[in-house]
Amino acid sequence: AQSVTQPDIHITVSEGASLELRCNYSYGATPYLFWYVQSPGQGLQLLLKYFSGDTLVQGIKGFEAEFKRSQSSFNLRKPSVHWSDAAEYFCAVARWGNTGKLIFGQGTTLQVKP
Amino acid sequence: DTAVSQTPKYLVTQMGNDKSIKCEQNLGHDTMYWYKQDSKKFLKIMFSYNNKELIINETVPNRFSPKSPDKAHLNLHINSLELGDSAVYFCASSQDRSSGQVRDTEAFFGQGTRLTVV
User: Fold this and answer.
1) CB of B17 closer than 8 Å to CB of B82
2) Taking burial as the number of CB atoms within 10 A of a residue's CB, which of A37, A73, A112, B73 is the most buried?
3) The pLDDT of residue B102
4) Which candidate, B57, B110, B78, B109, places its Cα nearest to that of B11?
5) Element housing A107 (H / E)
6) Contact between A96 and B33 using a beta-carbon 8 Å cutoff
7) What's chain A's average pLDDT?
8) Left (φ > 0), alpha (ψ -120 to 50) or beta: where does A53 sit?
9) pLDDT per residue over B60-106, tens digit each?
10) Minimal CA separation from B79 to chain A, in Å
11) Rounded to a whole number, what is the distance in Å from the CA of B46 to chain A's nearest CA?
């Protein structure tokens, strides 16, 4: 069955520290991969996506993610976290030709300490 | 200009009532979706419409009925509301190669509608 796992339910980092949010997926073929962010009371905003090509993708707000096929992972990273990055982060997969039919992970809540 | 807009943003209603949530997208996408986010923040797809035709109907009670008057609109009507229907409902749209387009695009989401059934 297709699934997405985000092993960390809650992460707390200090402002200025680096961040890595983990995402593992189970899928029959190479999926499309996404990271969305949900700020409190807000909708879902796309941070970055992987469709094909370079496995290191750059996104908005200084985020990047690396697709590792051998590990079935798509981890999100940021070198220096800002207080405004505190939010819920969702990893998701979809297949070619149906990018809106997303399978989401459980989400990771990021808290940023001053 | 908001790409995907939902109304209302908040909806509080009593059990047994019927309510609707409206969604509009101005991106020219062919496919629209409804997602439900439960109290644990888990997101799951409910429905998908492509060019006004239902193409995905996940295991959802038939009290939920999507309606698409045109490809820019996808409304969600819920009959006989129950306490367990309390959630945040998100509308989304995308454009896929399956629709004959050159490339796939990511899904764009609305701001969500927080439904509370009391």
Assistant:
1) no
2) A37
3) 60
4) B78
5) none
6) no
7) 94
8) left
9) 899 999 999 998 999 999 999 999 999 999 999 998 766 555 667 78
10) 25
11) 10
